[in-house]
Structures are given as structure tokens and as C-alpha cells.
Amino acid sequence: MPPVKRFTVLLVFTALALFTLYRLKPPSSYKFAPHRPPLDDGRFHWETRSQLHPVSSMIPLPTGKKVEIPRIQFKFPPEDTEARKLREERQKAVKETFVHTWKGYKEHAWLRDELTPISGGNRSTFGGWAATLVDSLDTLWLMDLREDFAAAVAAVREIDFTNAESEKINVFETTIRYLGGFLAAYDVSGGRYPVLLEKAREVGEMLYAAFDTPNRMPVARWDWMGAALGNEQEALEKTLLAEIGSLSLEFTRLSQLTRDPKFFDAVQRITDQLAAQQMDTKLPGMWPIIVNARTGNFTDGGFFTVGAMADSAYEYFTKEYLLLNGRSPQYRDLYERFLPAANQSLLFRPLTPSNLPILFPGGLAISTPTDHTLSPHCEHLACFAGGMVALGSKVFDRPQDMEIAKGLVQGCVWAYESMPSGIMPESFEAVRCEATEDGAECRWNEGRWLGAVAKKVVEDEEERGVESTIGSVEEKARKRIEDYKLVPGMYDIGDRRYILRPETIESLFILYRLTGDPALPHTAWRMFQAIQKHTRTEFGHAALSDVTVPDPPKDDSMESFWTAETLKYFWLMFSESRVVGLDEWVFNTEAHPFRREG
Ligand SMILES: *[C@@H]1O[C@H](CO)[C@@H](O)[C@H](O)[C@H]1NC(C)=O
Ligand SMILES: *[C@@H]1O[C@H](CO)[C@@H](O)[C@H](O)[C@H]1NC(C)=O
Ligand SMILES: *[C@@H]1O[C@H](CO)[C@@H](O)[C@H](O)[C@H]1NC(C)=O
Q1: In what order do the strands lie in the sheet with 490-495?
Q2: Average of per-residue pLDDT across 544-557
């Protein structure tokens, strides 16, 4: 570069930097001063931001004839009066719980991200854009709380996506909660509130800027102000599979509704990367929990799970196939290569006193091609898996998978019903039964349970460099069981909390709508009663810190998925089957239903 030109560049740069600094000085009246991009009219217009790395050709939404997808929901027979009465009573109780929570939110946390249910305060956890309000819009509509819905819709105009309360934005959480929340509220209310689509587009335009990287992979934990200022950005070397793999439904629905293909283009590029490398990982069919989005190489890494950090990436294959009405066989292929790998390598049956045929997905560590270690780790988060497998079984006509789905759902039900509180903990370790031809290893054997508990005691002692004075293996185990309140079949409970999570009722709901098994609503009702009783506070419902005791202590926290997901799925469990029918709707991973268009 000739010196004069270099000087000009320098000058322009300095001027720009000074200008930027000047513009960044916030007006004194400004609410969240530190994190505001430069503004002209008090707003940053994401849609006018020019792309540093524009795509050379846009991938359009797939067109063409839709593929015939088998019927998904069970054909429920007409209901008798008794059954209807019971169902409606239960549904009313769920709605009452929602109304109680909403009252607390309105009075103490309106337009804030979360209510603090014990202290009656509020806090900002997801950018400060009223996460609970946006996440609950479709629930308000479905429960027929029309006045509250109208008030919430009126308030969404006040949410300002040109500004955030945190420096880094989690692109995945913003997509599933906010973008998903607006889109579903727009869809369930039949398109009668255009502001909901406007807001969806506003969030979408903001998030689209996170994809402006050299390889078009999004920055998962995103410096949004840097992007607003036009800085260069690259995707992260360590990106969680779930955070890059579960954006497709929301961006696709946004393209369908706005007829702007760029959102679909953005997520389809991720799917193409996943598909190209699916069989090249250490566990062909699946991807490790951490992938390198900067290089776009998704094959390194040796830990595989369908639980935390991966979960919804797998859930979205079938759902995206549904949203596109079968027009992209790629999503079917992705699922059909994934499921057998997970079934073969991750699913295991725990040893239980009543020899239940239940399943959990564990975690698989692969260090060398021959060194595979399955950890019998069970997580509440992974309880969505039963619903996922049930749905895939219907959509892709894989009837043999329905048994797997039932095993997974019943595993989580077992974990709920084993606890003195009636609620499953966040995570625990189970004793795995190794199947033999005659099934003998799967029959309850107290000695094996005690052995696993004792082994854990010894490991802990080694880790801490102490040795207990208790002698025999059996004594060690019995003392640990008493101290740690372990229930038969579990040898450790790593995380005793219940944070108002939805995954088990989500899977129960899907399984019920697909099979019509009349026992499932009763199971759901027992779960609901336990949760409602233990979590209720003056202002709302609170997370629990230890579900292994009959009367669990509470934490001052209520995430937005309580009203977005948990209560919505409980309510739908007791609704008529035509309400949000699964042949017309598809749920995102935050329980937001999108309409499947023709
Ligand atoms: C949220 O909490 C702050 C104090 O932290 C309080 O000033 C404000 O009034 C609360 N918001 C609502 C809607 O109650
Ligand atoms: C990813 O990296 C591995 C080595 O770590 C290499 O063997 C493989 O070819 C790379 N794949 C792609 C698609 O770049
Ligand atoms: C799942 O894996 C088990 C054990 O490897 C096998 O017996 C079963 O047939 C598999 N089920 C399906 C549906 O592939």
C-alpha cells in the first residue's frame, strides 16, 4: 500500500474511532448506559447493518410437492362424561397455577426477565428483554387468558432489541425463547397481531448479524455491540453442539412468514456442515458436544450424549422435517443415521428393585478407537429424549422405536416416583444392568447396588485423600445410602435440585398424544401435584434445592420455561387432543408451537 493511501486509511480510521467513542457516550437519561451501539434516531437498525461476509448465493426454502407424512396423533375415541369431568378439573388446576404465577410476574417483575418467587423481586438473566413475558405469550393465548394476552402484546412494543443488559448475548437462548416466543404467539393467535411478527423480525435481524463471519457459522456467545459497530467477528472454536444445531426451526419459520429466505439460508449452512461430517466423527451418526465452529470442523472431540450441551440439536431433525413438510429428505437422513448410533452406544437399562424395562441415555467418552466408556449418568434435561424418539417413530414410520420411546419416558417417571418428594433430581448415577441372554443381569440384585455405592465411597475417599474408619464394603455402602438418601438403583445423586424443568411432562404429553395410553394422564397428574405442592410460594413457584427429602427447601428462582413449557405441557396433557394437534403444529425446544403450513 503506498504511504499516502496508508495515511488516508489511518486518518479515516482515527476519525471513525473518535466518532464512535463520541457516539457511544450515552445520554444521561439512558437506562442501561454501558452497552449501547451508536444510534442516529435513538435506535440501531439491525436490518440496515451491512454484511462483512455476505453470501454469494442464497439457499432458498425447499419448494416442490410436499411428502406424505404418516398420521402422528392417536385417534382418540369419544370421551365419556366422567372422563371429561376429571380431565377438565385437572386442567383447571394447572391453569390456576399459571394464573397465580402470572399475577406475581405482573405485580413484581413486569417486563423484566424473571420473577424472583420468594422475595417478590425481579432480575435480568436473558438480555433484559422481558424473557418471561415473551416466553409466556402463547401460553396466555392457549389458556384463554385473553385480557392478559392483550396486555402483554401491548407491552412488547416497549422491548428494545437495539440494546441489551449484558455484553454477550447467548444466540441459542435468544433464538428459542424470544424469536420462538414471538413466532408461536403470532401463529397461535392466527396472525391477528402483526406486532408479534414485527418483533420476531426485529430479533431475527439482530441475530442474523451473529452469522456474519468468514464461514457463515454463527458466534454462539456473541459480542452484539461489536457486531453493531461493524467489527470483524469469527465463530468460536469451542461451540456447544446444541447452541449451533438448534436454530433451524425458528429461522425457518421466520423465513416462511416473512418470505425473506436469508434466515433459512443462515441455518441451512449449519445443517449442511453437520450432514457432511456426520459419519466422520469418533461415534459415526453423532457429533461431539463441543464442535469447532471457527474452522467448521465438527469431528474432533470424544464425548457424546443426547443430554446437556447436545440435546436439541438431535430433537430438531425430525421437527425441521415436519416444518418443511418433508420437502428436505436431508433431515430424515440425519435422524436415521443418528438414532441407531444413540440406541447402540448410549442407551442403557438401570437396575431397579421392580425390574422395570426402563431406559436412560448415558454419556459416552471415546479416548481411543477401542476405549469407550459409558457413564450411567441420568439427567432431567435428557428426559426430552422419549418424546423425540416417539415422534421420530411416527414421522419416519419406525414402529420398533416406540418401545425405546416408552422405555425412556418410563425411566424419567421412575426417577420422579422414587423420590420422597415425588420429583426427579437434576442428575443422578444409576447402576447399569449388563444384558445377558437370559436377562439375569437385569434382575434386581441388592449386592450389585451396594457394591456400586461402596465403589463410589472409595473413589471419593481417594480423591480427598482420606480413608474412612468404617470397615466392610457393605457398611460403607449402607452409611452412604443413609447419609446421601440414595434410593435403590441410584449410587450417587450429583445434583439434587429441581429447577421447574419441563422435559418429563413434555415427553409424557407427546407419548400420550401419539399412543393414547390412558395411564399416562394419571402419571402426569401425580407429577403435577408433587410439583405444584412443593414449589408454590406467595408470588409464584420456586426451584427446589433438594428433592431427596419429603419437604424440599426452595431457591429464589423461577426460569421462564416454567410458564413457557412446564405449565403449557401440563395444561395440554389435560386438553382435548385437537388443541395444538401434532399433525398441524410442531413445538420448538422451548415449547413454542409453530404452524406447519401446506
Ligand atoms: C424490579 O425490581 C426493582 C428493584 O430491583 C424495582 O425497583 C422494580 O420496581 C421492580 N419491577 C417491578 C415491575 O416491580
Ligand atoms: C477435521 O480435522 C481432522 C483432524 O483433526 C481431519 O482429519 C479432517 O479431515 C477434518 N475434516 C474437515 C471436514 O475439515
Ligand atoms: C436398540 O439396541 C438394542 C441393543 O443393542 C437392540 O437390541 C435393538 O434392536 C435396537 N433397537 C432398534 C429399534 O434399533
Answers
A1: 377-379, 427-430, 490-495
A2: 98
